[in-house]
Amino acid sequence: MDQPLAATLLKILSAMDAGSLSFLVALVTLTPMGLVLLIVVFWLIEDRRRRADLSRYQKDMDRILKAYGDDLRVVTGYYKDNVKLVEAYQSLATSLHDQVVLNTQVMQRLVDSICSNQFCPAARIAKGESPMKGGF
Prior knowledge:
This protein is an all-alpha fold. Helices cover 85% and strands 0% of the residues. It has helices spanning 3-15, 18-30, 34-115, 121-127.
C-alpha cells in the first residue's frame, strides 16, 4: 500500500467514531464489495470534512470582507472631509488675497516714507548735508 494512501486512510479512520468504525468493519468483512463500499464511505467522510472546511472559509471571508467594507467607508469619509477642508481653505485664501494686497500697499507707502524722510540725520548725511537741522 502506498504511504500517502495509508496516511490518509489512518487519518480518516482516526476521525471516525466507534459506531461508524464498527459499521465499516462489518461492511468490509461481510460483503464481497466491501472494498468498494469502504472507498465510498471514506469519500463521503472526506467530502463532509471538505464541506465543513469550505463553510468555515466562507464565514471567515464574509467577516473579512465586512471589516474591509467598514474600513473603506471610514476612508471614504476621510476623503470627503478633506474636500470640505480644501473648500474652506479656498474661501479663506480668497479673503486673504485682499489682506495681502492691502499689506503690500501699506508696506510700499512705508518704504516711500522712509526713503523720503528729511528729518532723519542718516538720510541727510547720505545726501551730504549737515546732520544738524539748525545751526549753533
